[in-house]
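Quick question about two entries, pasted in order.
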Amino acid sequence: MNDNKKLFTAAVEDALNDMGGPTLEMVNTSLIQKYKCALSDCLENPDYLKSVLREIFGYADIAVIARIKKNLGEFSQERPVGEFLKVLTK
């Protein structure tokens, strides 16, 4: 796993952990069951994470997405992360 992917994964995991409870575990389980992928794969497939967040949180997914965006901070200007956020926030 390259450094960008590690930073991305850590930022998203941190945002999900901030939501409390077993949120990270629920998201990871859903990603595996629905898409056979890990959280780190969502950098290339942001629609997967968007779908899982909507399924778990409903319209409150906006708060989770805002937290992910905040955690990614300066990396949001870099190409793969910027594209990921564009899909996640539309």
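Here is the second entry:
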Amino acid sequence: MINVPKGTKDILPKDSYKWQFIENTARQTAKLFGAQEIRTPTFEHTEVFLRGVGETTDIVNKEMYTFLDKGGRSITLKPEGTAGVARAFVENGLNNSALPAKFYYITSCFRYERPQAGRLREFHQFGVEFLGSKEADIDAETILLAKTFLEKVGIENITLYLNSIGCITCRAEYSKALTSYLNENYDKLCPLCQDRLAKNPLRILDCKNDDCKDITKNAPKIIDYICDDCSNHFEKVKKLLTVAGVEFKINPNIVRGLDYYTRTVFEFVSENIGAQGTVCGGGRYDGLISDLGGTDTPGIGFAVGIERILMLLENTGKTIENPNTVQVYFAPMGEKENEKAFELCTSLRANGVIADFDHMGRGIKAQFKYADKIGAKYVAVIGSNELDNGVVKVKNMTDGSETEVEFDKLKEFIK
């Protein structure tokens, strides 16, 4: 037997309706904020992620699925959604369209890492990217969209953490202070962070190593180094969130794991999904479009892991109703009765009723067992007497009650 590759997972019919609920809620929420769907390829030229995500990030250094195609070109399966959307924005000249351009996507992403709860090698994201505005109100709106989505899918008791990591100018000053502090603790850093210190010291703040986390607890805080423009921007974001009734906490250690972020960064965190508690994360990336060869265009966005949402709902006892349950299952007791069941199914389906009937030539008891297994709400028995009298004997599978219903009144009865 050939098994599914490690870190990937089949989504079976018993679970697929849950995914459809999350995806449909994502689409509905994004549309409320004026966003339109964008779909980018599953793979891109590797340079898109080297320039966009950053060569010093863990994603680029350790986690990307990169290979040479038959033409010798370096290709990478997308590890996240933002860089591909930015590339599409530049390549298709969308900077000439009405701005801000508001996009959302639901996509597969790929990262080579140790599979764990809520984190697979192939995973799925709902993401939003708003491009073209530098104003604080679009930061607040993006965060509000994420919060609205989480509430609509049933997520409760989740905390919003905010930070500002400044612009390129003020971050340079902070980088000097951070580097000086970390140099004093160089020997205590993990080997990876010792290497990061020379290339991108901010990445050390994102390290999961316990020793490094202990060191960075007392490190200088980036929020203390941001310039007046960045500080004023952050104050406006906080004010607008307060106006919208969105509660938040400031976490000066949030830097996010990608190099393109500037100014506002945020995370929604839950304590109900184990060590990997971040459910949604995002922020502003004002230099990404120009890094990919486009005109200087500010942007902000976020991504939500669909697997994590489903795990969080399960861990908190939330259930998602299956809208695909068979409403009526016909149990015919002979060949002519089977033909009538086919006719009635066809008519009901044309009127929006989910209907089915026996295709296996089972006996009546076996048909009832099958109907119970698939969760049918009603079973409509058609025997010779029912066929002659133009009725079906309908059993409610929840309470066991039985009712005779005329053929032409089935639709009203079931609905």
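Reply: The two ends are 44 Å apart (CA to CA). The chain has 15 helices and 16 strands. Hope that helps.
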